[in-house]
Amino acid sequence: MLRIISLCTSLLLVGCVQHGSNLLDTAPKTKSDTPYPTFEDPYTETTEQENTTDATRALTGPNGELKDDDMRKVSEQLTDLGVVYHEVSGDQLVISIQEKVHFSSAKAELTPLATNLLDKLISVMSTKPELALVLDGHTDVTGNPIKNQNLSEMRSNEVRRYLLTNKLNASQLYSRGFGEYLPLCDNETMLGRKCNRRVEITILKIHW
User: Fold this and answer.
1) Helices 112-125 and 145-165 sit at what angle, rounded to 10 degrees?
2) Cα separation of 179 and 22, whole Å?
3) Which of 48, 51, 96, 110 is positioned for an S-S bond with 114, CB 3.0–4.6 A?
4) In a 3-state reduction of DSSP, which class is residue 90?
5) Is 155 exposed, middle or buried (0-12, 13-18, 19+ CB in 10 A)?
6) How many CB atoms lie within 10 A of CB 195?
7) Residue range 104-117: mean pLDDT, rounded
8) Measured between alpha carbons, how far is residue 30 from residues 24, 33, 105, 161 in Å?
9) Phi and psi torsions of 44, nearest 5°
10) What share of the chain is helix, strand, coil (3-state, %, to 5)?
11) How far apart are CA 200 and CA 102, in angstroms?
12) In angstroms, what is the C-alpha Rg of the chain?
């Protein structure tokens, strides 16, 4: 009887060793191999939390305010004043004024229509030193390209001069000229050339 019991015990032990080896070979080796995982990778979770924090930080100012809050208020004011604009969304909201400051051929003098638009923008910008106006001057293709480059800069500087005269800060104003190289309309027609003699205005936030 003792011999039979010893034999059975030996067989059981041998079977356990072989079975254990098979279990190690077939056990899940990665998280994706587990049919119903009950755990999460702590490193992945930490990375996701950090990414979320970075994204939130990119959208808020030092006091937790949303970056676009001020720009949304500007949009509302422009609407109330009847100024047509287009919102350009990216890392932060930028407002492109759809109405242009237009000029006579070969001239850089502001018209009453132009000063009316600028006066509206002054009323919005004068209490918001954190905002800036980008002034982009353009010409049609009439005349010499070098002279047109100078004329485009004169036009944007004339708009800047008017804004400075009416109490806007120099740090809020950025003027530049593009000559004849960025036409908005067809230069083959009189109306197209008139359309291209312009200064375009963009509003953006420069600091908190």
Assistant:
1) 50
2) 78
3) 110
4) coil
5) buried
6) 18
7) 96
8) 13, 5, 73, 68
9) -65, -45
10) 50, 15, 35
11) 9
12) 34
CA atoms within 13 A on the CB side of 79: 8
- DSSP symbol at 128: -
In terms of Cβ atoms closer than 10 Å to its own Cβ (0-12, 13-18, 19+), residue 3 is: exposed
For 24, the token pair is 């190690």
Distances (CA, A) of 95 to 4, 76, 121, 132, 198: 93, 12, 12, 11, 18
pTM: 0.69
Q: What is the distance in angstroms between the CA of the first residue and the CA of the last residue of the chain? A: 92
**In the predicted model, what is the mean pLDDT of the chain?**
79
Phi, psi of 188 (to 5 degrees): -80, -15
pLDDT exceeds 60 at position 53: no
Structure token pair of residue 177 = 């000229």
Instruction: Compute the distance between CA of residue 100 and CA of residue 113 in angstroms, rounded to an integer.
Output: 10
Whether residue 102 contacts residue 111, with contact meaning beta carbons closer than 8 Å, is answered with yes
How many residues does this entry show for the chain? Answer: 208
Give the Cα separation of 82 and 80 in Å (integer): 6
Mean pLDDT in residue range 73-87:
95
At position 51, the amino acid (one-letter code) is: N
CA distance 56 to 88: 20
